[in-house]
Amino acid sequence: MNFKLLLKEMIKESLEKNFDLKTDLIPITYPEVKEFGDYASTVALANSKVLKKSPKEIAEKIVSDLSKKDYFSRIDIAGPGYINFYLSDKVLEEFIKKSISEENYGESDYLKEKNIILEYVSANPTGPLHIGHGRWAAIGDSIANLLKMCGAKVHREFYINDAGNQINLLRQSVEAVKNGKPIPENGYHGSYIEDVAKMDGDPVLNLLEMQKKTLSKFRVKFDNYFSELTLHKNGEVEKTIEFLKKSGHCYELDGALWFKTTEFGDDKDRVLIKSDGEYTYFAVDIAYHKNKIERDFNTIINILGADHHGYVGRITAAIKIFAKEMNKNIESKILIGQLVSLFRNGEPVRMSKRTGEMITLEEVIDEIGSDAARYFLVMRKADTPLDFDIELAKKQTEENPVFYVQYAHARISGVLRNIEKPDFITNSIIDNPEARDIAIRIARYPEVCLDSAINMEPHRITQYLEDLSSAFHRFYNQHRIITEDKMLTSKRLAIILAVRNVLKNGLKLIGVEAPEKM
RNA sequence: GCGCCUGUAGCUCAGCUGGAUAGAGCAACAGCCUUCUAAGCUGUGGGCCACAGGUUCGACUCCUGUCAGGCGCACCA
Question: Which nucleotides of strand B are protein-proximal, with an atom < 7 A from a CB?
Fold first, then answer.
């Protein structure tokens, strides 16, 4: 159950009944101050103008309606017309019970209509993954988990750019090293090229395997690796261009074929076939997106690095055109993640593949561990640039938020090891402020998951987990769990079991382990 | 020059889509372990929310402009 949405619904009904007002403008917040309740709404203030009634008057009607419901121990009207809701202990206990008994507590089906293809990482197979890829991998994987949890169908895909100039250059570079010849101009350098030269088989496949290995170490999985080459082989690029020509979205100019993306919001038209007869990268990429639509996804999400954000306009325009011509309703969203700058002891580390001085994602994982790396990369909003200092991350391991959260889980597991029969009861367990604080956070977990999924902001999960952990540590410090009083022990047990389940559940969402011991 | 993103405590960042007294963590200082994990807890100090206007009963949040930083502006991929 998502209480926030339920509350919204109840207020909505009340507004309709009393004022004949249909509105979705029903803001609900988590007050920062305890005295303002568990949930607060400014709905009366927000709608006072439209209704031409005083906020107080509106608030009173709502309070009178909602007081009849069973959920609240108290509803106050405060200040100019805030409504502050206090959940009853019974409701809170219900949440605790659910969070213990339901393994996938927090799950919902709000997004069940969505059939999503989520593309992320999609690194060129011309070198090892770096920390930037790590950020998209961590964020993408977490978003996929979140969307799934909220009922969406999610297909995770990695697009392999295994065709084109860069690939040719890579092959030539490897070949040159093999034969002891100088690497061609604009070719690939770096020690990894020498490693690849020593391996048998196709360097592109070998590099792809290396990337897959790193991703699996990072616990990031894809449902499909989609090869660009197949688009060429199946003639899909050609077909796509024919399709666009026929539907009148192309024109020729200066010996090249142009795509009128400006019709759908791009700032300039784009070339599909160059005057030398070659396809552009873009031509191939839209063939890929047409393919996505043909596979019947209704939501297309791409995660791109900020260095590719110039690409957003043309690709969204292309998707719109396809959707229109193919008579489909497609929702598309391109997430732009800001770049990661890697530092070591405050000194910037170059990430260029060409210099060979790059620190790979694999090295970072080996140095600080998957858990810390994933947590670090996911805990910041994607649209802020991230300075990632390896030494600092290592040094911070002792005071890292990830350990703080994991420690809470391990602590609970430790207590449970000291109990022979972990029987718990969920009646009248909220007998102190610390327990209540935990309970209200547990109740909010499904809401946080949904908000986090809809906004595609996994950092809200880490934020939440830290808050919940903090509430637990406070509880643990104040109250002994195991005592002679069996009844009391069973009550306390319910609280910590709930915390443990939610921590485990939340950590799983972001791909971090929940250790039994630390 | 144009476009996108960012600017909040000494540092790293949140701020729930316009509401109440702007919050965490780190760092600093002072306390708390004969009892379930002290990788923990409690307390203290620390703010012109980049700046200037505007909209509003109400702005960190929306609009305009300025400044600073990052990233883009190909018949490259």
Answer: 3-7, 12-27, 35-42, 57-58, 69-77
